[in-house]
Design a protein that fits this description.
This protein is mainly alpha-helical and 275 residues long. The chain has helices at 3-33, 53-61, 64-95, 101-108, 110-113, 120-129, 137-161, 164-172, 177-188, 190-205, 209-214, 223-228, 239-259, 261-274. It has a domain at 63-228: MetI-like (MetI-like fold). Helix 8 (164-172) runs antiparallel to helix 9 and helix 10 (190-205) crosses helix 14.
């Protein structure tokens, strides 16, 4: 075996090990969800028979339908509004001459490093003073605020990667800034915007602490809170049912990633190369 063949074998072996490590938790949970309730199956164990009733029980006992609906409402508003605000802000930072823009941008970046666990209690009292606790807005507004710093940083980098000559040529032809933004710049940024949308979707969908503090009404709880129904000694904690509930929560994220996989990878790779 020569050097190139040995190198290829090592690369394939490392890749195979990585695939196994990534897929093991998901397949293990799937097998557990398909196992007989009460069997206490754990680890990578292939079930003797398939029990789809676990998914039905998880859906009904945990009110997964309500949780998925509430999470979807929050995610749609957070992703759409965050991206709209971030596009306008990032364009302004990169293309308009605004006094103190670098200072303002630096202050915004504090949101990237500031742990929101340290301010979530103040969020709660702010929402409580506005009578917004136990509402969708109590989750939407804080998460928009938490998402915007990263979104502006991400999209500003994307604006910066587009040649200035495109905008200058359009301005010579008489195009205004709004026309340049929506007809020239944004089409160039489609992979970056879709990648950002996927990231914001995942972060917002998986948010647990904020929902735990803001939501006490069972009719308003999100998917992660619905999943928490199965945790603890006083609740329905069968491992097979809990695993089925976890799969219900993960399905929307998996579907989104499958449909936007190519754009997501393109946006990540393009951003890495241009940065």
């Amino acid at each position: 075996m020569n050097y190139k063949e040995r190198e290829k074998l090592i690369a394939h072996s490392i890749f195979l090990i990585g695939v196994v490590l990534v897929l093991y938790p998901f397949i293990s949970i799937l097998f557990l969800a398909l196992s007989e309730p009460g069997s206490r199956v754990s680890g990578f164990t292939i079930p003797n028979a398939i029990y789809f009733d676990n998914f039905i029980k998880a859906w009904t006992k945990g009110a997964m339908g309500v949780g998925l609906y509430n999470s979807l409402v929050v995610v749609v508003f957070v992703v759409v509004l965050s991206i709209i605000f971030a596009i306008l802000a990032a364009y302004s930072f990169e293309n308009l001459k605004i006094y103190g823009s670098n200072l303002i941008f630096g202050i915004l970046l504090i949101g990237l490093v500031l742990p929101y666990e340290s301010i979530v209690i103040s969020y709660y009292y702010s929402m409580k003073s506005l009578n917004l606790v136990n509402t969708h807005l109590s989750l939407i507004l804080p998460q928009i605020g938490l998402s915007i710093p990263f979104s502006i940083f991400w999209l500003r980098s994307s604006f910066r990667s587009i040649p200035k000559s495109l905008s200058e040529a359009a301005m010579i032809e008489g195009a205004g800034r709004i026309t340049i933004l929506y007809k020239i710049l944004l089409p160039q940024m489609t992979p970056a915007i879709l990648t950002l949308a996927v990231l914001l979707f995942m972060w917002t969908w998986n948010e647990f602490l904020l929902a735990l503090i803001m939501i006490q009404d069972e009719e308003m709880r999100t998917a992660p809170l619905a999943l928490s129904y199965f945790a603890g000694n006083k609740r329905y904690g069968d491992p097979a049912i809990t695993a089925a509930a976890a799969i219900w929560v993960a399905i929307p994220v998996l579907i989104l990633y499958i449909f936007l996989q190519r754009k997501f990878i393109s946006g990540m790779v393009t951003g890495a190369i241009k940065e």
